[in-house]
Amino acid sequence: MFKGFRSLLAMVACATLTVLAVPAAAHTQCAPYARAVSGIALHGAAAGWWGEAEGRYERGQAPKEGAVLAFRATRSMRSGHVATVAKVMDERHVLLNHANWSRPGMIERSAMAEDISPNGDWTQVRVYYAPIHGLGLRASPAFGFIYAKGTAVAQVSRRNARA
């Protein structure tokens, strides 16, 4: 009986070590990741970032490196989503760095995003989805971009305000 108890105890200890060995990134959500990468100090659900940014950060419809693309909440994305712009490819394509899109906790770097909105204002976006190795099939609604202090758009706005 004592030998069986020791075996059980050893199995529990190994299972506990396995659980503790799971990297913290496995639980990364999009908002804390975007905040850390962009330096934009907003908190709460991603869908609320657009409103929270009003009066604190410049916002707009043009992609800029370092900006955060803020997605609206939907039935399938109840908390919305935020992603940082790593590179602007052209006016309709950017590369995003973000977390928790293709798989819970997964961090994706240089994920393609395409503006499919009729007016070219980034209000409808398709984003690379790892399980299908291509752009997602659904259009995701977005508010637009929140610009980190120091991005080109914010610098131009401050210069124009002083003029």
TrEMBL record:
<feature type="signal peptide">
    <location>
        <begin position="1"/>
        <end position="21"/>
    </location>
</feature>
<keyword id="KW-0732">Signal</keyword>
<dbReference type="Pfam" id="PF05257">
    <property type="entry name" value="CHAP"/>
</dbReference>
<dbReference type="InterPro" id="IPR038765">
    <property type="entry name" value="Papain-like_cys_pep_sf"/>
</dbReference>
<protein>
    <submittedName>
        <fullName>CHAP domain-containing protein</fullName>
    </submittedName>
</protein>
<dbReference type="InterPro" id="IPR007921">
    <property type="entry name" value="CHAP_dom"/>
</dbReference>
<feature type="domain" description="Peptidase C51">
    <location>
        <begin position="5"/>
        <end position="126"/>
    </location>
</feature>
